[in-house]
Automatic annotation (TrEMBL):
GO CC, alphabetical: ciliary basal body
Similarity remark: Belongs to the BBS4 family.
GO BP annotations, alphabetical order: cilium assembly; protein localization to cilium
PROSITE patterns in alphabetical order: TPR
InterPro entries (UniProt xref): TPR-like_helical_dom_sf, TPR_rpt
Designated name of the protein: Uncharacterized protein
Repeat positions for TPR: 65-98
UniProt-listed PANTHER family: BARDET-BIEDL SYNDROME 4 PROTEIN, PTHR44186
Keywords, sorted A to Z: Repeat, TPR repeat
Amino acid sequence: MNIIANGKTDSHSENVRKVDEMLCNEPASVDRLNWLLYIQHVRGEVTSCKQLIKDEIAKSNGKNEYAFYKEGIILREEGKIQEALEAFQTCHKLNSGNVDNVKEIAKCL
């Protein structure tokens, strides 16, 4: 509880503190490390990118669309077309409205 100079309490700051505490307890966003996946892939740090992809897929219980997308891109670059196709199909299952996933599936056929 905050006390203002006139001796009254500031209920607004108390409410803000409670909201801040609630926000801190929320689970992390599924896509919070997508930027790092992108950076590692662009830099050619494929080994660390693949490990991060596995970690992100595990943390998200298989719900991170971008991790599967990047996995598919890397697998296709490595010539593993069937595995890449499966990764892109998983992306499509997670978000059937994303046209880019369909394009990547077509590139694997």
